Automatic annotation (TrEMBL):
Keywords: DNA-binding, Repressor, Transcription, Transcription regulation. This is TetR/AcrR family transcriptional regulator C-terminal domain-containing protein. Residues 25-44 bind DNA. The keyword Membrane does not apply. Signal peptide: none annotated. Residues 2-62 form the HTH tetR-type domain. Pfam families: TetR_C_1 (PF02909), TetR_N (PF00440).
Length: 211
């Protein structure tokens, strides 16, 4: 069977889930595909290019952007897209690390264009719209990286600091019971991400209202 770029990317996604980003190499990928390493260069120029295509595949559902419906609030539209991206990244091992620093491929450009058009239509200047896309993307990626980093911590409490002294840190001590119930859970990470996203969107609303 003729090797295609899609087959290479599919195999890379599977390998990423198996060994993580650190273990993903062109040599290992070629071995899994039963070809020589130089053969892969007919389909991807280098590992970074391969990762760009893997990032595109991991977020494939996000590139099918539904335009803003008549009467739909742009902020709600942007929020739902960001939440969907966050959930996609936390669903795959090291996906956020792959997406961080990637460059848009041809297939992702229509989605980027649609998001820019929506934000510009809401009243943002083109440069501000582009900066907003980047800022929201950074929040999504950073939150997903933190999620996976927390998940990889050992289950034991070894190395955790002692409870804060209420006499010295009254606010931290008062927060401890509430935070202990949810700290480190998937729900906690998404709640923190949503909180940051809502703050960002609230700032955009204020910026637009004062123009």
């Amino acid at each position: 069977m003729t090797l295609t770029r899609d087959a290479v990317v599919d195999a890379a996604v599977d390998l990423l889930g198996e060994v993580g980003l650190e273990g993903l190499s062109l040599r290992r990928l070629a071995r899994d595909l039963g070809v020589s390493a130089p053969t892969l260069y007919w389909h991807v120029a280098d590992k970074r290019t391969l990762l760009d295509h893997v990032a595109e595949r991991l977020l494939a559902d996000q590139w099918r952007v539904i335009p803003l419906a008549p009467g739909e609030d742009w902020a709600d539209w942007l929020r739902e897209r960001a939440i969907a991206q966050f959930r996609a990244l936390v669903a795959h091992r090291d996906a956020a690390l792959v997406v961080a620093g990637n460059r848009p491929t041809e297939a992702s450009l229509p989605a980027v264009e649609q998001v820019l058009a929506t934000l510009i239509g809401a009243g943002l200047a083109p440069v501000d719209a582009f900066s907003t896309v980047q800022a929201v993307g950074n929040l999504v990626i950073g939150s997903a990286i933190e999620y996976h980093a927390e998940r990889e911590r050992p289950a034991s409490d070894h190395g955790r600091p002692a409870p804060p002294d209420p006499q010295v840190y009254p606010h931290l001590a008062a927060l401890r019971p509430a935070l202990a119930e949810r700290a480190g859970t998937p729900e906690d990470h998404e709640a923190l991400f949503r909180h940051g996203l809502d703050l960002m969107i609230a700032g955009l609303r204020v910026s637009l209202a004062t123009r």
